[in-house]
Amino acid sequence: MTMKSTIFALALAGAAVALTTPASAQVEQVPPPELKWSFSGPFGTFDQAQLQRGFKIYREVCSNCHSLNLLSFRNLAEPGGPAFTEAQVAKIASEYKIKDIDDQGNSIERTGRPADHFPPPFPNEQAAKANFGVAPPDMSTLAKARTYTRGFPWFLFDIVSQYQEQGPDYIAAILTGYEDPPKGFNLPKGGHYNEYFPGHNIAMPQPLQAGQVKYDDGTPETLRQYSQDVASFLTWASEPHMVERKRIGFQVIIFLIVFAGLMYFTKKKVWSDVH
Fold first, then answer.
1. Structure pTM?
2. Is 199 exposed, middle or buried (0-12, 13-18, 19+ CB in 10 A)?
3. d(CA 114, CA 110)
């Protein structure tokens, strides 16, 4: 059997398995709605006002259970981010207590500084598991770690459109996906039904309600708005230098195009006598 026929046979076998598998086994997760984000695409940038609102939600709600270990306070003032001033960042950091060791080796608790990382909400993993039976995940890379299968033919279009927003779509959907379990659904004790969570049984109770967080800029205080704001902030937290990366990538592409043109005309000039 040739390589081509082998690949074709495997493809047919995979299709047969998919068709004979029960629908309940095939659908492990409901795909979340595809939302529009300011940072999508090769030229997308973060909405600074949205990042500030998302940080407010994280600080007032999410930080009670979820850590942000890889992010420092000073990142909040870096270009491409929430655009807090250095004075604002220093004030935010000073409102946290950081566990440290002094010059004599003694454990102390001091006021936070911009260079410090966000402190975890629990002293250890055992304490983190006490409330829900599992430790709440760190949110530093949550927007990159969480995804879902787009399926055919969408993943082909994603190659062209550079669609990489599965993470924020998923986070926003989870926050708005809490519902009463349908009739006949066996929800374990302590679980909560969520339409978009794999298996629909999530340990975390619904964290946000409309009107829970007060905005100062007149933005609607709805659950949908909250979910998109905090998802945008967590996307930035997972890649604080995304805007700079896109800018450098665009410059590199322009350079390569110009360089390729110069090499082409150089080749034409060098070999002109031969041709």
1. 0.82
2. exposed
3. 13
Q: Is the pLDDT of residue 208 over 80?
A: yes
Structure tokens at 108: 């102390």
CATH pick for 27-71+138-250 out of 1.10.3720.10, 3.40.50.720, 1.10.760.10, 2.130.10.120: 1.10.760.10
The 10 Å CB-count burial string (b at 16+, else e) for 88-113 is ebbebbeebebeeeeeeeeeeeeebb
- Answer with the residue of higher pLDDT: 1 or 260: 260
